[in-house]
Amino acid sequence: MSDKDISDAIIAEIASGVSALDAAQWDALNVLGNPFVNHAFLAALEESGSVGQGTGWSPAPIALRGEDGALAAALPAYLKSHSQGEYVFDHHWADAYERAGGRYYPKLQIAAPFSPVPGPRLLLRDEGKGPALLAAAEAVVRQNGLSSAHATFVEQGQLDLFRKAGWLIRQGTQFHWTNAGYGAFDDFMATLASRKRRAIRKERAAAQSAVDIEILRGADIRPEHWDAFWIFYQDTGARKWGRPYLTRAFFDLVADSMADRLVLFLASIDGRPVAGALNILGPDCLYGRYWGCTQDIPYLHFELCYYQAIDFAIAHGLARVEAGAQGEHKLARGYLPVPTWSAHYIADPGFRAAIADFLARETRAVEREQEFLGELGPFRRG
Length: 382
Hints:
- By secondary structure, the protein is α+β, with helices and mostly antiparallel strands.
- A hairpin with a 5-residue loop joins β4 and β5 (about 70-75).
- α2 (about 40-45) runs antiparallel to α9 and α7 (about 195-210) crosses α10.
- It has helices at about 25-30, 40-45, 90-100, 130-145, 160-165, 185-190, 195-210, 225-240, 250-255, 300-315, 350-375, and strands spanning about 5, 10-15, 55-60, 60-65, 70-75, 75-80, 105-110, 125, 150, 170-180, 210-215, 260-270, 270-280, 285-295, 320-325, 335-345.
- The longest helix is centred in the C-terminal third of the chain and has 27 residues, at about 350-375.
């Protein structure tokens, strides 16, 4: 893939990985401080072998430089040979295109790998460079005979940039908890219907009576904790995906480079760790990311992944908790449906028209479902 002149003042390049780009310049473009597109997180994925050779995720970040030679805009991008680890499902698109004689893979994926977390996908000094960055991504698709480019979990504030460029917009659903200025967990509980309060108290009491729970942050997460958590994570990865997406080295690398962003809820019995939930801390949000256990304990998943996260968010004045992809079971625990967004550039005009028609129908169904689910929330009426 060759560099392409976007304008007299801006040059687009495809780097061999985020690791090859200047960390300070990259992070200066991540103005909201989203931890999943910061240099340390993406570089750890590359350096640990979680993405790269043999994974189906080939790093191909696209960067624009200004006249001073510094990064003016960038996006995390990957050449994908499959659709795993994305959480926005396009397998049926791939099947349809290949049945019609096309070649869907490789495709260009603009994402934080394995992280269904809304955030910026266009990292910009200023919004005016957005069209040039998207034009560069489209040029990569055309010049290399790719079928498409997909930006997943795009923050809502960037959608207009994709729309104006003609990308198709797809809507999905997640369940997030929002902090309404609660002073304590009981203040949150007071907003719930009495039946929901009783159920949560029962779940918390059962889980907490079975285990001891520690909240570990940064350097307090020692090697033995990481060893235990790796066992938990492998168990979950094997059951969900057949094999874990992340390597053991990834956790060591983020422990070194992102220690201040890590929060581990660890459950033990007689000093022996039996379950853990690893969270990543953003400027105003706690992101629940990885969970696992070696012993099935009733309600412990809810306690570590949802209730402890709410406790932590309230104690630290965070605006919300995002607990990952899907999961209607989160609804009864105070996590309400919110829309998520992805954007899609389809090179073939006929295929694009078919996808556009599908998305129009799918969006109506998703919006109806979100409205229905919102009415089932656990909060008191009136």
